[in-house]
Amino acid sequence: MAAQDDAMDVEEQPTEIDEGLYSRQLYVMGREGQARMAVSDVLIVGMNGLGVEIAKNVILAGVKSVTLHDPTPTSWLDLSAQFYLGEAELGQPRAAVSAPKLAELNQYVKVTCRDDELNPEFLSNFQCVVMINAPYETQLAVNDYCHANGKQFISSEVAGVFGSVFCDFGPEFVVSDINGEAASSCIVASITQASPALVTVLDDQRHGLETGAVVQLDGLDGMEELNGRQFTITFKDAYSFEIDCDTTAMSPYKTAGYVNEIKQPTTLAFKSLRESLTAPGEITLSDFGKWDRPGLLHMAFRALDVWKSKHGGAYPTPGNLEHAGELMGELTTLNEAAGEGEFKLEAEQLGSEATVKVVQQLSVGSAGVINPMCALLGGVVGQEVLKACSGKFMPLTQFFYFDATEALPDEPLPIDQVTPTGCRYDSQIVVFGSEMQEKIMALNYFLVGSGAIGCEMLKNWALMGLAAGESGHVHITDMDSIEKSNLSRQFLFRPSDIGKMKATAATAKAQEMNPAMKITVYEARVGSDSEGLFNDDFFEALDGVTNALDNIEARLYMDSRCLFYQKPLLESGTLGTKGNTQMVVPHLTENYGATRDPPEKSIPVCTLKNFPNQIEHTLQWSRDMFEGMFKQTMEDTNTYLTSPDFAETLRQQQSTKLDTLKNVKAALVDDRALSFDDCIAWTRLNFEVDYNNKIRQLLHNFPEDQVTSTGQPFWSGSKRAPVALVFDASDPLHLAYIKAGANLRASNYGIKGTWDDAYFLAFLPNVVVPDFSPKDGVKIKTPEEEKKEADAKAAGGGGGGAADEELMDVDAQCDGIIAQVGQRCRCRCGCGCSQWRPLAVLTVH
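Request: output the structure for the sequence above.
Response:
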């Protein structure tokens, strides 16, 4: 079989990125990175459990094509980790069976199966080549070609609870963004007249820069010679750095200015596998508690390859201590043969009992390819493939080793415990023994959430056989339904599942992988309101709980329940390319809620409204405005129209009830939209108020040349003098604001809108915009004043209550508004109807 290129139909990669599918991923990879991936062809050689995990991750991410290469017949040892192989596929080629199922994951990725010879002609078709559990002889031949021809090469191996990864992206691999973090942006506080010049930023935000970073200075008042210039910095402390520039003859710095980091591409030089085997350099550390382990595992995996080459490619027999001794002998021989400048273990480490034990553990379980190791390394290698294709994020340099020997018994298990029995769990039996497998199958677990992490957990459990025994059971709850954006990272779902409940769809796929798995599905939120369902009897019957949640509140609640019932809790979460796990064991570890992140720093209201100086401020202001205009006001109005208890509800909101009623009156009377033209006029007037009138009032209160009581310019530091906008319908941004606002307003009132520019341009001149003149006596708080008031209130236990006459005045105004709305909030179309249709409420997603 030379090829099966026509086996899977695939849609061509779209010219535009499918944001509905890749929306979450775009935040991490960026458009440029995603576009590079969409033209990358990937070859994966080896379709065991690790190979299929990598293929799954890469296909979901959206490369151009993935070609599978593995004619190896399916065996019982494969079924513990390869989720697309079952008993019915025993004896069939692993790649050919897996390809059609992998193709279902992403309609834009072409998935094919090939068994060509791995020669230069074949390898030239791919940007990235991944080899799984391949002998070094084959790896070396493929890597030599890739290294010399600009192809990225990755190899990986799983052997029991041990794993390895090697990356070679060539002698000149360009990384466009080494960390993926947002570029730093800070406000300048001072710049010295010196050589080199010292730049200090405001102390409310660390600059986050490292030596070698490139920054650009802009907007400086004084020392204008630096504006628009870029400099390489030298780190001094968290709030200052030096720039390689002599500023002694420049005009003194006065005020204002920004420091903006300019991300720079980095060129990395990788060594070939042939060079790296004997001179690996610094090996990436995976466990800070095992600082001496990477070098030992490097030599142990080399020795394992030698042992396999002498035994026809087979791994050491499970539980065979004689084979383990032979493996230790091969390691010793390699170490003694190391030449000058080549890597070798120190004699003390080579002869230690700890080294002998680790090599023995590798040998006796190496034949087992188990799911937990495949899932972990599949994620690591999958991310390395995306780095290779996108040029984003720092790749591994170059070897990476991982082991989980903590999961093994202290002494080797007897051979009868680890001998394969001809069942789907043979790989796990080889590593952990048949008694442990029986315990896993008898577990009762509660999985809370079935999104990205939940899907992975269900898949892992199905392959491990968790709850596949007579007394075992899994309970899963998730109240969410499947959306299109879920499909790029929640691999148990397909386009046909959109709209279905996540827990139900995920359970069906998991039971396809392992029909013996017993699962009960719930669609309830975990919390006090579901304690009748998840009650004492429910928790007492559990062996443990696994969280797959996306919010802190639910995590803390489940943590408290596990504490109360003394149940183990497995907690995890992801954020972009970052992830965390925590194991909570009663009486052994601290619980999830024992440590808390500090509360997020709140943004003062006056900063949001009048003195924003960070992008976060403008984003929060925009969100607040949207919520107020299109959501909260409409919700309050609907409550007024439909709730007989509206007055009682208002009495519980003494400080906000007047504003609430004013908004209701505006929605129903003053600014009631009867046509789309009303919506356009309303938006145009809001533009004038927010972007002209308020700014002119602010500058009237605080002129650009105002100085403080200390003689410093008022508009300095984090405060920047704004500029009032003059509306211009020919400005694309101004017109876009009007079009969006008018259509959103129309949606609230159920009015049909339009996006036709000509319609807006014809109507806008008819909008009468009232004249505005700034007023004296208008109070605008500064951040300093607001902080002083907050500190005084905190010290004095509050600022006292309002005077009785003020409360009476508020109550009287509220009564007056209710009377006006009650008399006038009737349909003014002349039809005589007396009922309002509830207004549509818009929300931020």
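The longest strand covers residues 152-159.
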